[in-house]
Design brief:
The protein is built from six helices and four strands; from the N terminus they run βαβααβααβα. The protein is an alpha/beta fold.
């Protein structure tokens, strides 16, 4: 079984993933946020680095989903299946161009086609955590 979590930053994906992993006795594959050479650049200049950051994450998420498909049971706290949402939001916020968005969508489509050839084509369960910004601030 493959369980994938989705939601905004700070919604509690990693905490839920850990709890599910412990309850189900299975491995949790967390999104690698350490050693990201683009994240700080993005926060300094989102218009310049939004596309590069999303390509960085897409590459890492593609690797994670391939790794998850190799085992019988895994949980991912972020996945390639929700990836387009973040670049689309950056497009709506004016941080990426239509050309960048189109190139990204084509690349993502190619990656998803590659996954079609794997034993599992989609997660067994995708959990979307919807938390308001006000609720996230309460947790701080």
């Amino acid at each position: 079984m493959l369980i994938v979590l989705a939601g905004t930053i700070g919604a509690g994906k990693s905490s839920l993933a850990a709890a599910l992993g412990e309850h189900l006795g299975t491995e949790v594959l967390y999104e690698a946020v350490d050693n990201n050479p683009v994240l700080d650049l993005y926060y300094k200049d989102p218009k310049k680095y939004a596309f590069l950051l999303q390509i960085f994450f897409l590459n890492k998420r593609f690797r994670s989903i391939k790794e998850a498909y190799k085992a019988d049971n895994n949980i991912l706290d972020r996945s390639i299946f929700e990836d387009e949402l973040f670049l689309t939001l950056n497009y709506k916020n004016g941080n990426v161009t239509k050309t960048e968005l189109d190139i990204y969508k084509e690349l993502l489509g190619n990656m998803l086609e590659e996954l079609e050839g794997m034993p599992k084509k989609k997660p067994d369960l995708l959990i979307y955590i919807d938390v308001s910004f006000d609720k996230m601030l309460e947790r701080i």
